[in-house]
């Protein structure tokens, strides 16, 4: 009892604490739950009574949770297990967790399919009990277990504890404790440690999780139900017939050789019967082992499961052919993938059956005979022979299959000699060894070749390839270093024969033929390229054996060594030998004379900007080395000379290697000699110095002589060229005509000279002259100001791109000024006038046609043009106008000109001609003047003729009541051939011929005004109507009006309709129905005294609307001395002012602060008088100032220093309570007090908990 009281007090305390502090209740629940768990862990033993009490609580909670389940909890999805995979670690049983890993939520859905509220919502509705608060702690987990899946499928019904906890929504480290039951009586429970495997039978299970109560107790909470199905893997294989079929209990065919899942402890099936076949069914797997299955009376087979099972269905033919196997001592024979263990086996009639023969290791199948006939279409794979054979149609016939099985042998000869020499080609060596060592007659396979084997030798460091090169210092030797070598030959094998290898020892000896080199005596050849000289010398050389027989060797492989320079030289010829012949060497003396050379010049013509095709100078042979001198005159008349000596070395000139300077180019030698600049006439001097460098090693007099000849030739072509400085290492680039002369400079050749021409034409393709700046108008007009900054002159453009610094461009100007003076010159004229600018080019690298343009300096004039100069129209009552546009001198339309119309042929004497900007309507002749800025006016003519057709007006009949004035506008007038515009004018003339004061009838007529008739050629005919007067109602309507609040009401008026004599209606007045003068809408009623009995009065009310009074408010500036009290804040009312006795309801306040400076004044208009409105929002920015305590504090009044008198009032307003600046702040200001109260209450709660536990332990 005390405990319940204590718990009740604690609940009240908790509620007060939550209400005061706004701390979530879940925070308290978490702390107390943790305390309860710690207390439970400290209690090592619980009595049986306590356990029974706990069970009782569990049952009560279970019953409660079942009710909750029926009410539709647990409807949310469980994403936590969406990607759990079965694995050997956590799930050794192979549970399919990926497919079915969530709870089915059917037991948690409402019957009427209403939207589920969820456990959390249910708990919030039942917060008053400890049990429901405990349920809130598992609401999230229960929601995770809800899913749309119908069941969990587990292999053999097995699952590990860790995987089970994952499916139940637990997370690492799987700390939760769970239990499950089919009947809610017999429970299984997870253990605290380890990862055991649990086995589930097929069925529906209830799942619960262990949780803790507020008081430290333990209870089990439902988290869902789930259908669990245990399944076994079953495989069915069919042999013996491709037509065999297995059907399940629903008579559906099972896929051939398939494995599937069975969700029961038994499986039934039938087997298709095939004519001429017997059926044998066996099963393996499970505790029963291998057993034969027998069908029941219905042909149904049954498999009982306690583990996975494989079923074998064999079709055994009753009509067959007997196959007899011959020699199978060293091979295995398979027929239709079945090993034949006996000599005889059966195959079906009329069937192509498959035979496969697999030899034992070390054996091969060389062939197969069937009934003593060889099989020609054998195929081999991994040494196994396969083929297909037709069984035939004879029942119980016999077919004999005999494979030829042979033992593989690689036979090698012993004590043989292998020819070998240093440097022998390794492939030749392999062939020598293979052909010498392999005994093909005794080898199987006997068609083995060099390509089928790998040959290695024992190097002392294992078996190595024949070309193995051991590292220096390694205990191994290169092949051939010993007199004998141990050889291993490995056969690679193929699809028919397996690999083989064998070893033998061979002797090594050089068995090649002896040779000698023979050179003819007195050989003389002319210097040429190395290849040419070699080919010429080889004609005098042969290779012979020791008997003098010429050997068939390739002479190109002979090595010739000699000093290749003019004079007598010693020639050495070496023959390196080959795998058949030994090497040999011989020497002789030969004579070399100077060779002949030529030099050609690649004459070319290009256009400026292009490059010459290389090479320009070509020596033949190439090593004769040509240098080229180019001279000429550019298109600008300048002389030019260039030479390229960068590719010619001193060695090239000497024809041999010269120490120190030999590899330097002639240009490098020139720099070392101080000849950085050289003229054409100085070239012989340069080469004389090079002769000095070469010395006696070579004579280059012929080269110098050739250069002098070239210079003499060029001097005749371009006089004075000897004094022109040479451009070293360049080619001409400027437009011009050039002579190119080439000279060979190699002293081993007779000097040769070649001359050609190089032309660089001026570029004219895609080259044109362009003005520096274009004038952007059609008339090439510039104002004087524009001309001052305009870029006159021109330039060359190539492919649209400007070329800078182009010589030869000329600009000329000629023209006439505005004063008539003729001028010309090379500078642009910029005063008013008309001028011609001409751009041309003379000489240089470009050829372009001169360009010319005219330009005008001065302002442009606009012109006006009518669309039609004269326009004719016939009067139809509509406007008839003209149109004119203004154009600039480029012909661009600037806009529409303004028009003035003047009727110069009036149809009426009392109408004077006046100008009008509107298009005319009346008949007449009009002078039309078009006007536009900066343009002379233009005149046109508009003629509107009178309408010709006969016009007719027919007046309709009308009926009115007594006393009601006839509304003549309501009388219908029908017209014919009358303009719409004139109908209204005629309508305005309608009138009654009689009086409206008495009942009766009189004529209604119209008069055609002169303003109408003057536009018609013929007189308009009028047909009169009739007006009938009858009694009629009278309507008097009060006029609605408006007034501003505070102003005098306007005079109330009324309107009378339907009467002809207002005097007889009586005394009419309008009065205001309601009292009051504030903003709003009031009814105005019509009252009539002394009413005339001849009328029926309809009195209609109006309204008086009183609008808000508009005022303007200005916030007055204020100032105070720091530390003093704030002066009153005031404002000034302007505009319409206040009504006497009214108050606006405006409140002023300022920004807080007492430091010296400016502060904003704020206006609160939330209580503004409803009869007023502000014309604009006043600004209080920086209107309050705090100053230091100094003399001369400014006046506290408004800017004028006193109240304004121009209909305004000055209103001083103190800061009112309730403004935004005076309101007490809420929110965080109250929290310190609240937290203090919460702490006190929490301490009281803790004391009560401790007291309650102490009492319980007692």
Automatic annotation (TrEMBL):
Transmembrane residue ranges: 1233-1254
The protein's superkingdom reads Bacteria
Q: Which UniProt keywords apply?
A: Membrane, Signal, Transmembrane, Transmembrane helix
- According to the UniProt entry, where is the signal peptide? 1-29
Cross-referenced Pfam families, in alphabetical order?
MBG_2
Claim: Transcription regulation is one of the keywords in the record: no
Renumbered to this chain, the Low complexity biased-composition regions fall at 126-137
Per UniProt, residues of the MBG domain are 1034-1105, 1111-1175
Q: What InterPro entries does its record include?
A: MBG_2 (IPR041286)
Question: Which residue intervals are annotated with compositional bias (Polar residues) in the record?
Answer: 38-88, 103-117, 1192-1211
Task: State what protein this is by name.
Answer: MBG domain-containing protein
- Origin species, per record, is Dorea formicigenerans
